[in-house]
Amino acid sequence: MVLPSPEPRSAQQVRSLTDRGRAPWPLAIPAAIGATFLLLPLLGLLVRAPWRGLLRILADDTVRQALLLSLFSATAATAVAVVLGVPLAWVLARSTGRASALLRGLVTLPLVLPPVVGGVALLLVLGRTGLVGRWLDAWFGFTLPFTTAGVVVAETFVAMPFLVITLESAFRSADRGLEEAAFTLGASRLTVFRRVTLPLVAPALGAGAVLCWARALGEFGATITFAGNFPGKTQTMPLAVYLAMETDPEAAIALSLVLLAVSIAVLAGLRERWLGSGAAR
Amino acid sequence: MTRMPYRHLAAAAVLATALATTACGSSGDSGASSTTTSTTSSTTSSAAAVSGTVTVFAAASLKEAFTTLGTQFESAHPGTKVVFNFGPSSGLATSIVGGAPADVFASASQKNMDQVTAASLATNPTPFVSNVMEIAVPAANPAHIDSVDDLAKAGVKVALCQAQVPCGTVAAKVFSNAKLTVKPVSQEVDVKSVLTKVSLGEVDAGVVYVTDVRTAGDKVKGIEIPSDVNASTTYPIVTLTKAPNAAAAAAFTAYVLSADGQAVLTADGFAKP
């Protein structure tokens, strides 16, 4: 038996497919459920928010300290990640061989590692009695746990891989021809990197830094394990939200709203400049 | 392009992962347990026979004693399984009020139990033990702590429970009795995290329950707090009204209150309520 072949679509019908992009229902329904699933909890925050008491809660010293600390430490962690992560991404992108493949895997490990495990590992290495930490303490009398520097270390550990992987692929896809041209014209390797390669990957650097910053801002597990919890010193917003949930859920909701607002502001403010141009390339 | 730097980096990375893996292996699961719903509670109606899973939410300080009690209870009642969720009493109370499917709640303070009874999720909790505080220092006692007063000295790193957790509240009472102002470096989520920071040597001292020092073995050293400044807390236990496995929950609660149960708790250093 021969099946009747379907009528060929008219050009107009084809245009309507691309124009309106109406999804067939087996795609549309899961898509709608997926979108609802992601948006509903955020809506829940808005609905349950103690709008009237909001100002009072947010004027609280602990909250202000937590917010400032979070903004400061996430920014500092991003700065450290840029300083160390850009060269690391470059090395990973430009090297070949088994060792570098292994290194690439290991560097991105914190991406999949539960952050709290990262915190435990940091404590065992950089803690006061840790492998490296004990020498820091003995020689300089300097210990990382329970300090704001410890928070930055924990956040950098968890967030830097986001910057590294974003940049590594950018370095890979950057036009080597331009670098070679600059090199043949007599520029040193460092000058080529600074004047040619870096500008080429600038959009990716921006996107990577934003991702890194956002991840650092939300860091919880490694921070509470490695840096402990003390208001104004190591108690970042996520810690404050978690701990407030035990005693004052309204305050936890208010704090969550602040984090939500910060996240939206970051996305909205930087999308055009960085992510947008990064995607357009 | 030289190749040496990569080798160094690779070596460092291998080392880092090795450490991370070791950390992962040795830290393990700190006792947070999954909650399994009981499937066999309603089929057997005989009063004596209890079976199925009992989910017990208990204060972190009860971890060792209750784990022993759980094993004993399971062998006394074949077919039962006791699943524990140990944590800060304040956090446990919030989860129960939030609808966590628990059968039994054992709190380290009346205050957190009140949260649960106020939400009509339990009635008539029974006090079953009490506990007092002790200073825990790393085995080597690097800061030479030998009294409560030493905790207020500059440069001494102290970890405490955060204020809303019972061990934090009781520690604050000790300091007010001793007329001391102690500035901790960290306010930990529960008493076991304070103990961990002490046993790792990250802090010079922590204020925990006497029972925690006893169960920690020789990793930490205890420094007694004189009874005129020490403070205590009473632990209530209750079978929750919405217990998924009410029969077994009641049996477990009764076992904790029984002479056998009390013997286990006393052996760990708990006092009569």
Structure commentary:
The complex is a heterodimer of chains A (281) and B (273). Chain A has 281 residues and is mostly helical. Chain A is 78% helix and 0% strand. Chain A is built from 15 helices and no strands. Chain A has helices at residues 11-20, 25-48, 54-58, 61-94, 98-107, 109-112, 115-126, 133-140, 148-173, 176-184, 189-200, 202-217, 221-226, 237-247, 249-280. In chain A, helix 9 (148-173) packs antiparallel against helix 12. Chain A starts with 10 loop residues before the first helix and ends with a helix. Residues 277-281 of chain A have low confidence and may be disordered. By secondary structure, chain B is an alpha/beta fold. Chain B folds into 2 domains: 52-130 and 234-267, D-Maltodextrin-Binding Protein, domain 2; 131-232, 3-Layer(aba) Sandwich (D-Maltodextrin-Binding Protein, domain 2), CATH 3.40.190. Chain B has 9 helices and 9 strands. In chain B, helix 3 runs parallel beside helix 4 (110-118). The radius of gyration of chain B is 21 Å and the shape is elongated. At the A-B interface, helix 4, helix 5, helix 7 and helix 14 of A face helix 1, helix 3 and strand 6 of B.
CATH superfamily of chain A: MetI-like
The CATH class of chain A, by name, is Mainly Alpha
Proportion of β residues of chain A?
Answer: under 5%
Using the coordinates shown, work out and report the CATH topology of chain A: MetI-like fold
What is the string of helix and strand elements of chain B? HEHEHEHEEHEHEHEEHH
Q: What pair of chains forms the biggest interface?
A: A-B, 37 and 36 residues
Helix percentage of chain B = 25-40%
Number of DSSP strands of chain A? 0
What is the mean predicted local confidence, pLDDT of chain B?
A: 85
- Gap between N and C termini of chain A, in Å? 51 Å
> Main beta sheet of chain A, described?
none
Q: What is the total tally of β strands of chain B? A: 9
Low-confidence stretches of chain A: 277-281
What kind of assembly state do the chains in view correspond to?
heterodimer
How many structural domains are formed by the residues of chain B? 2
